Amino acid sequence: MTDWITRAREVAAQLAVDAVERDRANKTPFAEVQLLKDNGLVTLLGPAEHGGGGQTWETAYRVIREIAKADGSIGQLLGYHYLWAWAARLVGTDAQIAAVEELYTKNNFFFGGAVNPRDSDLKITQDGDELVYHGHKSFSTGSKVSDLTVLEGVLEGTDDHIFAIVPSKQPGIAFHDDWDNIGQRLTESGSVTISDVRVPWSDAAGYVDRKFQPLVYNTLNVPTIQLVFTNFYLGIAQGALESALAYTRERTRAWPYGGDDKASATEEWYVLEGYGDLQAKLWAAEALVDRAGAAISPILHAPREDLTPEARGEVAVLIAAAKQRIVDTGLEIGTKIFELTGARASATKYGLDRFWRNLRTHSLHDPLPYKRREVGDYALNGRLPEPTWYT
Question: In this protein, which residues make up the domain named Acyl-CoA dehydrogenase/oxidase N-terminal (predicted)?
Fold first, then answer.
């Protein structure tokens, strides 16, 4: 793991150089994704026999975090890529898993995903031995920087959701330049129109003879990506605190009117108290996030048939707890750092606001109170969360 973390930190150092300028420009991050590819981070989870890193999810989560310290958007893109690269393993057949993992690893392909099960706006019809996807998705993270896209839709006349992996660059997929939110601005998360995209029935993930073959393991998609969220949230919060500490060391001035004058802001009692409080909370959140990563990684790499509903529920509760803790802590850090750095730190050239904007934007993905309720129901009543598209 250590070598991969070191490599991720080297990439992050390059991203940090112009992170503020790139956030403002809001340009499609082709160069940033190429940087991930060139450093082997895209194929970190790929099988070693195909040239991949052969690493575990525990390592992948740590890598996501390191990238997000420098650039939350690129951390999100990499995390989503890891999830979608694992999608075949989550829901596919053994043959589909082997084919997808060889394809993306050998070609160093980057994944995006047009998946939003809350909106049933992508329909699937049958045409002989083919499935035909058509419709619209409000969000398609990765869009124009992706080589492969995971599609999800509902088969006409049924309640069956079908996932398929298709080339991103084709006439039937039109990515729209309509992602212009206050945070995570480089994630290419705008809408997409799907027109007559055809997929052989044999590529319908997890389907054999047009029937889905369910496993408890299939339901790990939500805990896995929720911990992706949690790790790039943690990286954003760590980046915010590190940036603020550096600013205070270099630029913050001591307050001369408090009756306890100090020569340097680094000796101000309220500055020391403030940073001490934030650092302690961040260390606590990090410990919980690491515990969750250590819990789910062996499950993700174990034989898929071995997973029980109870084991799945236990890890889902732990991830829900980690997510709520880092969201609360990260948002507090993103706000509090301005009180500790001083008025001049609010200048746009320093970009300290981007950390709060990034975390605030993505943490709205699904309501945090529902995660608190899951943990509370487990603590009070011993009930494990039932798998849904968001739990």
Answer: 9-97
Tokens of 146: 């992706």
| The pairing of beta strand 192-200 with beta strand 111-114 | unpaired
pLDDT digits (tens, 9 = 90+) for 97-116: 999 999 999 999 999 999 88
In a domain, 61, yes or no: yes
Q: For the chain, what is the domain count?
A: 3
Residue reference for tokens 């606001």? 353
Q: What's this model's pTM, rounded to 2 decimal places?
A: 0.97
Domain that holds residue 24: 2-107
pLDDT tens profile 243-273: 999 999 999 999 999 888 899 999 999 999 9
DSSP annotation string for 310-330: HHHHHHHHHHHHHHHHHHHHH
CA distance 45 to 54: 5
In a domain, 116, yes or no: yes
387 in a structural domain: no
Give mean pLDDT, residues 204-227. 97
Close Cβ partners of 193 (under 8 Å, ≥ 6 residues apart): 135, 136, 173, 174, 176
Are 69 and 6 part of one and the same domain?
A: yes
SS3 139: coil
